[in-house]
Design brief:
The complex is a heterotrimer of chains A (298), B (285) and C (258).
Chain A lengths: L1 H34 L12 H7 L4 H21 L11 H11 L4 H12 L9 H14 L5 H13 L3 H12 L7 H12 L3 H14 L3 H34 L6 H6 L16 E2 L5 E2 L5 H8 L2
Antiparallel strand pairs in A: 1-2
Chain B lengths: L7 E5 L6 H8 L11 E2 L2 E2 L9 E4 L11 H9 L6 H14 L15 H13 L5 E5 L7 H16 L3 E6 L2 H7 L2 E6 L2 E6 L1 H5 L6 E6 L13 E3 L2 E6 L4 H10 L3 E7 L4 H15 L3 E2 L4
Parallel strand pairs in B: 1-6, 1-7, 4-5, 5-6
Antiparallel strand pairs in B: 2-3, 7-8, 8-13, 9-11, 9-12, 10-11
Helix pairs in contact in B: 2-3
Chain C lengths: L1 H16 L1 H23 L4 H35 L2 H5 L5 H35 L8 H24 L4 H16 L1 H5 L8 H13 L9 H5 L6 H27 L5
Helix pairs in contact in C: 1-5, 2-3, 2-5, 3-5, 3-6, 3-7, 5-6, 5-11, 6-7, 6-11
Classes of the chains: A mainly alpha (298), B alpha/beta (285), C mainly alpha (258).
């Protein structure tokens, strides 16, 4: 009896130490492979049609899988601040596959429209593919008018094609459930093209209505930058007014306050007060992080 | 070929002779290339005829996830019986074949003998007029074989017709009114067991013990195993031999007829048959 | 008809006592749990993933049961010769076949119902509420069940005249072919003659079009399934299934059971 008990214990110890050994070995192997600098950005299968065929009846599930992959791919690059021109090149194929597998995955279109078309370091800088994605989206989901909103944004912000932007907003406005401003925007853009007010409005709507956190964050970033531009424009206008009244150029914003043109010295979205810089032109405070943000996102 | 009502008819033949095939043709497991057969006046194609027949397949195997009681109940449902009737019959038949204590045990735990008994039970549960058994004794120990023999005799007493196949001569001799002999797929003859096996005996055999050194001319023809001697002689020389042994003070252990072996029996049949050239094909006729 | 029911209930009983089925259902429920986890890491599509994954699990596991056990329904009985005593009873061969079919379909119904409950539980765990739009999931499960019944019929058909291994292969093959049947109709290849195109088209109509029963895409996003589709799919399954079972009966009725 005792004999077999000892054997059992010995076997148990062997098993545990064997597994521990395997664990350690795997760690070492991982290090080796890291050293090999294997490119982990791989999309072995590229053909959406092929993948759809291979999914048999389970395409929507595969679509969800590829969507998850797309989000992780973007998220990782964004987190490491590695987005540069040309190195987000898997985003389009991943979203292409995702929407081929599940044409009704709205969030994929919206995500794609933002991060495909937006310029680096925020996105891939590929507005043409964003448009292609959205066109597919509206065909599969004709009721979802916000895809037209996204399309309008892409044409307006990234392609600077105001005619097409206006068309997109007008098309979306046809949906009885669409927000009223779609129609208004269509007309405004057709008439004026780009304007800070329009840009501000469009980004604010995305910021307020988007549910996907990364899209929301991206819109917030743009919103802040446009807000700064709007503020600076207004401050310059007031500075010019001061010069017109007093005959000389103000050197400090407090002078404008004293002249009654401003209630107080306004601050930028980060809370740092604006200043008047060289030549009496309004500018961001030297200490403000918005300066860096502005530089990075030009 | 014809089996009469109330007969116990045996299908005899070596393995591979076609006994199982014939039986399967009768119960519609196999379809004939030609010819016809009738049971109880109805064609074998008539499913309703199956109400009146019971069948035990060769080396039966049943649903091993069922108990004996469940199996019998399941099979009984195909017959026109009321629920209570069914229940009573299942109980009775389990007692009859000696499976009452095991009735709640799943069939996968049954021994071969118990399976054979369960098979027999399902074959006679519904009181069929005709009972067809394919090698009912196979795989059974002597006790089991005796039980099956008893059941067959009981069926005969109840006036039922029993058709069974076997390759064991002694079983056929004991039970059958008539036998049909199949060799190589052909029916070689039908008749009573004695008629069929009625080959003249090949003589007599005496088993005896005798002390050493006795002068016995018989010993010259005898084979010895240890203390025992075995000697064969034609029937007419039997009493002379016995006298010899008695005079020598030998101890006679047994005196028996030399029975032909099964091979001898069938060999003779084939030869006799060639002489006659009167074969009846068994393909449903 | 009574005989059909007798065989069906026994087939169901056999399935219930077969522990493999329980393991499969348990595995499916595990998948539901996994779906909850997967949903956590897929932003914005948590519910959609749970529904997709759940329906996939139901479909795939149901498929395995339908193919492997479907083929075994008749093969096992022929191999083990449990069939012999049964067919000597006053029961027609087609009654036996139909009974086996019904028994397995009943089993599948119970299994998919159990898995559907698991799916709803997973949804509840995540949403803490169930909406009207979640009712469409039941419709999707019903259509999956129709598909599985058709596959059982096909499995029965093949097992009546080939070995179990080949029957499994053929049934799986027809399943895959049937999924692509719709694509076959619209195939665009430059160098195919009109005759070949017509042939392919004909074949695509004769194959079982399993895409008819697939509404996962719509249901995963809470969209409605048109009633007309449900009615027509049901009719399709009934008619196609009847044809297959009739063929199986015809073949089985003339088969010699050596």
């Amino acid at each position: 009896m005792k004999r077999s008990g000892i054997i059992e214990v010995a076997l148990g110890v062997l098993l545990v130490s064997g597994l521990a050994g395997v664990w350690q070995l795997q760690k070492k192997i991982d290090v080796q492979r890291q050293a090999l600098q294997e490119e982990r950005d791989e999309l072995v299968l590229r053909s959406p049609k092929l993948i759809k065929r291979m999914s048999l009846e389970y395409a929507p599930l595969m679509g969800a899988l590829y969507w998850t992959r797309a989000v992780q791919y973007y998220g990782e690059k964004h987190r490491l601040q590695q987005i540069r021109q040309g190195n987000l090149e898997l985003l389009w194929p991943l979203l292409d596959i995702t929407t081929t597998l599940d044409p009704n995955l709205i969030v994929a279109y919206r995500f794609g429209s933002t991060f495909l078309s937006d310029a680096p370091p925020r996105g891939a800088g590929d507005p043409d593919h964003a448009v292609e994605l959205l066109r597919r989206g509206v065909i599969a989901n004709p009721d979802y008018w916000r895809l037209y909103q996204d399309m309008g944004n892409v044409y307006y912000f990234d392609k600077k094609d105001y005619a097409r932007a206006s068309e997109a907003f007008a098309e979306g406005a046809k949906n009885p459930q669409a927000a009223i401003w779609m129609k208004v925007m269509a007309a405004k853009i057709a008439a004026e093209g780009e304007s800070l007010e329009t840009s501000y409005f469009l980004w604010r709507d995305i910021y307020q209505t988007a549910q996907e956190p990364q899209i929301k964050k991206n819109a917030e970033l743009h919103l802040r930058l446009v807000k700064v531009d709007l503020d600076l424009r207004e401050l310059n206008r007031l500075a010019n007014e001061y010069e017109r009244r007093s005959g000389r150029r103000a050197t400090k914003l407090s002078e404008l306050v004293q002249a009654g043109l401003l209630p107080q010295v306004p601050a930028d979205p980060d809370g740092y007060p604006y200043v008047l810089g060289e030549g009496g032109k309004a500018d961001l405070n030297v200490y403000s992080p918005m300066l860096g943000e502005k530089l990075m996102n030009k | 070929m014809r089996v009469d009502t109330g007969e116990v008819f045996g299908f005899l033949g070596p393995n591979g002779a076609g006994k199982t095939t014939t039986i399967k043709l009768l119960v519609r497991l196999i379809f004939p290339d030609g010819g016809s057969a009738r049971i109880l006046g109805k064609s074998i194609d008539d499913v309703s005829m199956h109400q009146e027949i019971g069948y035990l397949p060769e080396q039966p195997y049943f649903y091993d996830y069922l108990t004996a009681a469940e199996l019998l109940d399941y099979f009984a449902r195909f017959h026109r019986l009321t629920a209570t009737d069914r229940q009573t019959r299942v109980e009775n038949i389990l007692k009859k074949v000696g499976l009452e204590t095991a009735k709640k045990i799943q069939l996968r735990k049954y021994s071969k003998g118990m399976l054979q008994r369960a098979g027999l039970a399902q074959a006679i549960l519904h009181d069929p007029q005709v009972v067809i058994l394919d090698e009912p004794m196979s795989g059974l120990d002597p006790l089991g074989r005796r039980e099956v023999r008893d059941i067959i005799l009981e069926l005969k007493k109840e006036g039922r017709t029993v058709l069974f196949s076997t390759h064991i001569l002694s079983d056929a001799e004991m039970l059958c009114d008539r036998v049909g002999v199949l060799v190589g797929g052909k029916l070689r003859g039908v008749g009573t067991p004695e008629e069929m096996v009625g080959i003249k005996t090949q003589g007599m055999e005496i088993l005896f013990e005798v002390a050493e050194g006795k002068n016995l001319p018989l010993l010259a023809k005898a084979t010895r195993t240890g203390e025992r001697y075995r000697v064969q002689m034609p029937e007419e020389e039997l009493y002379g031999a016995i006298e010899q042994l008695r005079a020598a003070g030998a101890r006679i252990l047994s005196v028996a007829q030399i029975k032909p072996t099964l091979e001898d029996f069938f060999m003779n049949l084939v030869e006799a048959d060639r002489a006659q050239a009167n074969a009846v094909e068994v393909s449903g006729k | 008809m009574k005989n059909v029911w007798t065989v069906a209930t026994n087939t169901f009983r056999e399935a219930v006592r077969d522990r493999v089925l329980f393991n499969l259902v348990f595995f499916a429920l595990l998948m539901m749990g996994a779906a909850i986890l997967v949903g956590q890491i897929s932003i914005g599509i948590e519910e959609s993933v749970i529904v997709s994954l759940g329906l996939t699990a139901i479909s795939v596991i149901g498929l395995f049961i339908a193919v492997f056990i479907g083929v075994g329904l008749v093969s096992k009985e022929m191999d083990k010769r449990t069939l012999y005593a049964l067919l000597a009873k006053p029961v027609e061969r087609w009654e036996f076949l139909l009974g086996k079919f019904c028994g397995l379909v009943m089993t599948l119904t119970v299994n998919t119902a159990a898995m559907a409950v698991g799916l709803y539980l997973a949804l509840w765990t995540v949403k803490h509420t169930l909406e009207k739009s979640d009712g469409w999931i039941l419709v999707a499960v019903y259509l999956i069940l129709l598909k599985l019944a058709l596959i059982v019929a096909l499995a029965l058909l093949f097992s009546c005249f080939t070995t179990p291994f080949l029957a499994i292969l053929f049934t799986a093959g027809i399943y895959v072919a049937g999924v692509f049947a719709g694509d076959l109709r619209t195939v665009q290849a430059v160098d195919l003659s009109p005759a070949t195109m017509n042939l392919l088209k004909g074949v695509s109509y004769l194959l079982p079009n399993f895409e008819n029963f697939n509404v996962m895409g719509a249901v995963a996003h809470g969209r409605a399934v048109p009633g007309a589709l449900v009615r027509q799919a049901t009719l399709y399954a009934v008619v196609y299934g009847a044809v297959v079972l009739a063929a199986a009966s015809a073949i089985f009725s003339r088969r010699n059971l050596k």
